[in-house]
Automatic annotation (TrEMBL):
Domain of life the protein comes from: Bacteria
Alphabetized InterPro entries for the sequence: CopG, Ribbon_hlx_hlx
Residues covered by the Ribbon-helix-helix protein CopG domain: 7-42
Biological process per Gene Ontology, one example term: regulation of DNA-templated transcription
Signal peptide segment: none
Protein name: CopG family transcriptional regulator
Length: 82
């Protein structure tokens, strides 16, 4: 379900946004939704951390690293610190 949001915007900015939306084949509402979603994604630390873990996992998988290899490496580092 969606909800409506009313904002005030300079007429010139609105006109330029409308033109850009048409060029991209989107509605102005789609453009605003996309901009807001991207803004939140860029600033949401939880999303950033999740993405970081996913990228790390993909790289480790590509290198054929197994979970027990990671556990072993963590234990070795912790033992060296003692």
């Amino acid at each position: 379900m969606t909800t409506q949001m009313i904002i005030r915007i300079d007429p010139e900015v609105k006109s330029r946004l409308n033109k850009l939306a048409r060029v991209e084949g989107k509605t102005t509402s789609q453009m605003v939704r996309d901009l807001i979603e991207n803004y939140i994604k860029e600033r949401d630390i939880a999303t950033y951390v999740d993405d970081l873990w996913n990228r790390i996992g993909e790289k480790l998988t590509a290198k054929k690293v197994k979970p027990w290899d990671i556990t072993k490496a963590i234990k070795e580092v912790r033992e060296k610190r003692r």
